[in-house]
Amino acid sequence: MYVGRFIVVAPDRAAYRVSSRSFPNRRVLKREGALTVAPTAEAPETDNPYISYNCLRTTADDTHAVIGNGTQVDPITEKLELGYPPRDALAESLLALDYEKDDYDTPRIAGVVGEESYIGIVRRDALVVKSVGEPTLVATYEKDAPEPTELEATDAPAMAAELYDREFEHPVCAAAIAADGEGFSTGQYNGDQ
Question: I want to staple 120 with a disulfide (CB 3.0 to 4.6 A). Which of 76, 80, 96, 129 is the partner?
Fold first, then answer.
């Protein structure tokens, strides 16, 4: 089954996987304060605005982590740094940016991990934001409503590998974050790249 991009958010950790039929030549890179999805050196040039973005950021005070499938990660993080409650930062940013205006009306998905953790999606027909008390999955296609799932790994590199290896079709790369008592630790998995 092809579900596109998906996230799993738990109260203390989260992970994201890029799955793509159209743009498989991407990887997750670690940058200052963020993990970024970016084209590989072999990727063909494109003007598609949805190919490269921060998929994971933490707030400057390390109290929250934000994960998602596009540019919404940055304004959610910025709103949290301004003191917005996590639910409001997530809902307002998803609603403001709306679904992606591509050929598929791709939904935007995002999650916040912190003292309160949330998962959200904005589709062409709805905005859904839910509190997270157990590992919860939402994807851009097929599984586009939050649902409980398994997430066995607890450290970030192992979570990224676990999501990459999920049964869903066309894995490209994955990123993850885990609360470690003093903030967050991150990990990424780029398959055989």
Answer: 129
